[in-house]
Write a structure and sequence with these properties.
The chain starts with a helix and ends with a strand. It has an 8-stranded antiparallel β-barrel. The protein has one helix at residues 2-37; strands spanning 55-58, 70-72, 78-83, 87-96, 99-110, 115-128, 131-141, 148-151, 158-162. It folds into 2 domains: 2-37; 45-162, Beta Barrel (Lipocalin). By secondary structure, the protein is α+β, with helices and mostly antiparallel strands. The radius of gyration is 23 Å and the shape is elongated. Strand 6 and strand 7 form a beta hairpin.
Length: 163
């Protein structure tokens, strides 16, 4: 009877080992798949001189005169972001290959603390076909330790250059 228990335990351990190794393999495959799908993001090294003094908007002026969100490259280290939600903000930015990355800050009311709290966003825009497409947003409230990642590609938010 003990030999049967040993065989069963051995089979269970072998089965668990197989499951764990398959799970790791699937995760690696998924990571490689995502990295391969995002390879198109690494085509060109952008720099400030290419965009100096340019303005970029998303959409058009609204039916009631609403202004579209606007990005203005007016300084080598900071850009001006004008949002319909938060107003005008000066944001530090950088380019990572074909991607514009900038931080923005906002405030929101927190029901738990009954106070206004600051939130930080790291925004990533991919430059392709003379447009900037909003691809990722990493957000974190001052009360949180980790960033929440939002894939923005599904919303098809595209900034185009205006004269």
């Amino acid at each position: 009877m003990t030999q049967n228990k040993i065989k069963i335990k051995t089979l269970l351990i072998g089965f668990l080992t197989l499951l764990i190794s398959c799970n790791k393999r699937v995760k690696k495959t998924e990571i490689n798949k995502v990295e391969t799908e995002l390879d198109y993001l690494k085509r060109e090294n952008l720099n400030y001189d290419q965009f100096k003094g340019t303005k970029w908007i998303i959409g058009e002026i609204g039916l009631n005169g609403e202004k579209p969100d606007t990005i203005i490259f007016d300084n080598p280290k900071t850009l001006t972001y004008i949002s319909t939600d938060t107003g005008k903000e000066s944001c530090n930015f950088s380019f990572e290959n074909d991607t514009l990355v900038f931080k923005s800050y906002g405030t929101e009311y927190d029901l738990e603390t009954d106070k206004e709290i600051t939130s930080e966003s790291i925004n990533k825009f991919h430059y392709q076909n003379n447009t900037f497409k909003f691809i990722f947003c990493y957000q974190k409230k001052a009360t949180e330790k980790e960033f929440r990642i939002t894939n923005m590609e599904k919303y098809n938010l595209i900034f185009r250059q205006i004269k």
